[in-house]
Amino acid sequence: MKKSSFLTGIVCMAIAVTSAQHNKQEDIKAIKSMCGCYEVSFDFAETFNYAKDSTYKPSKVKHDRGLEWVELVNETPNKLVLQHLLIVNDTMIVKHWRQDWLYENTDLYTYYKDNVWKYNKLNKADVKGQWTQKVFQVDDSPRYEGTASWVHVDGAHYWKNTTDAPLPRREHTVRNDYNVLKRRNIHEIKQNGWLHEQDNLKIVRNETGEDFVLAQEKGLDFYKKVEDGKCLAAQNWWKDNKVFWAKVRAKWDNVFAQNKDLKLEKSIDKKPLFMHLFPMPVSSEDASINAVIDGFVKK
Q: How far apart, in Å, are the Cα atoms of 232 and each of 20, 93, 97?
């Protein structure tokens, strides 16, 4: 009986390990399927508001369209790096946002407010089988991070997480009546592309950390897969610029590796970080790039 029980336990463990490996491969397949050339629709609308001011004006409904190339920049067994490149008027390339996916990651930077991110050390048991999505600004500075499991059931493949973030790019220059966006992000893989669905809360967070929900928002970003050849300009641009941005990522990796709270300057000489980095020559040395980024990291 004891021998039989022992063998049964071994078999169960082997099945569990095989199942975990299979799920991880399904996760990786889903993440990598977000790469390629896409016609993108960006749609956002406020659904409810709870403003105490009767003169409150909700954000206008937003409908934008674009062409975007998503490049798999780097892949290791536990990390995938996806860089988005926006194509404007067929030839102009704008380095867009970046998303990193880390398997069973325990180091998380959670947005607080006012350009401050709090470092959190997670328990290994709490992130078992999960993937952290780390989202970065156009200059590779932090934006938001969250951890959750990919779900593969009934033919559906999706990842869902709720986390705090700075104001979205579409609003940070036109709205100052809230300072945190609590984002519920759903990334779902479709047959003809993928959907980034959002249910967001626009939050006023005070000095003691108390929150007031000013409004709710719905977002639907759909990435429709098209032929890679339509994004050739972005592919060529990345070949010419990838070394420069690898140096930028390496510098930020060193900043994040300090594993402590992070506060960034919003601007220097009236210019945000991306306006300092974008004009730099692609041949710039590490020291020059590091000096620019160091200027924005508050000690």
A: 37, 11, 19
